[in-house]
Specification:
heterodimer; A: mainly beta; 12 strands; 51% strand; B: mainly beta; seven-stranded mixed β-sheet; four-stranded antiparallel β-sheet; 11 strands; globular
Chain lengths: 114, 111
């Protein structure tokens, strides 16, 4: 079955510390992978995406993610978090095609300690 | 920039009322989606549409219907609202590459 797992429901890190949010997926075909961020009361904003090519992808707001096929993972990283990064983060997987039904993980809530 | 707008940010309705949630996108996208978001459950797909007048059920279509009469507009209809439909509703649209763009969401409360 196709699925996305974000094992951490809630993470708290100190401002300025590094961050890694975990994402594992199960998908039968070549996956198209995404990370989205949702600030409180807002819709989702795309941080970055991966389909092919360099397995380390850069996104907006200083985030990056690394695709590891052997581990079925697509972890999100940031070297130094800012208080404004507090939000909920969703990993998602889908086919690279039209009418794409993307499967979302259940999300990881990030809190920032001053 | 792609813009997806939703007709209301907050909505309060009574049990049994018919509720319309409207979504409009301005990027000529073929695909549009309706999700509901509940704490701990992530995003669950209600319905999606890949063309005008075309629709397909998502994972939780019960109690909902949709309408897509124009390419830019996708409506979600709750025929008879119930308290268990209290939720955040998110609309999205996507191009052929599959990347989805989201609206700000409508928080619906059914009393």
């Amino acid at each position: 079955a196709q699925s996305v797992t974000q094992p951490d429901i809630h993470i708290t890190v100190s401002e300025g510390a590094s961050l890694e949010l975990r994402c594992n997926y199960s998908y039968g075909a070549t996956p198209y992978l995404f990370w989205y961020v949702q600030s409180p009361g807002q819709g989702l904003q795309l941080l970055l995406k991966y389909f092919s090519g360099d397995t380390l992808v850069q996104g907006i707001k200083g985030f990056e993610a690394e695709f590891k096929r052997s581990q079925s993972s697509f972890n999100l990283r940031k070297p130094s978090v800012h208080w404004s990064d507090a939000a909920e983060y969703f990993c998602a997987v889908g086919p690279y095609s039209s009418a794409s039904k993307i499967i979302f993980g259940s999300g990881t809530r990030l809190s920032i300690r001053p | 920039d792609v813009k997806v707008t939703q007709s209301s940010r907050y909505l309060v309705k009574r049990t049994g009322e018919k509720v319309f949630l409207e979504c409009v996108q301005d990027m000529d996208h073929e695909n549009m989606f309706w999700y509901r978001q509940d704490p701990g459950l992530g995003l669950r797909l209600i319905y999606f549409s890949y063309d005008v007048k075309m629709k397909e059920k998502g994972d939780i279509p019960e109690g909902y219907s949709v309408s897509r009469e124009k390419k830019e507009r996708f409506s979600l209809i709750l025929e008879s609202a119930s308290t268990n439909q209290t939720s955040m509703y998110l609309c999205a649209s996507s191009s052929r590459t599959g990347e989805q763009f989201f609206g700000p969401g409508t928080r619906l409360t059914v009393l």
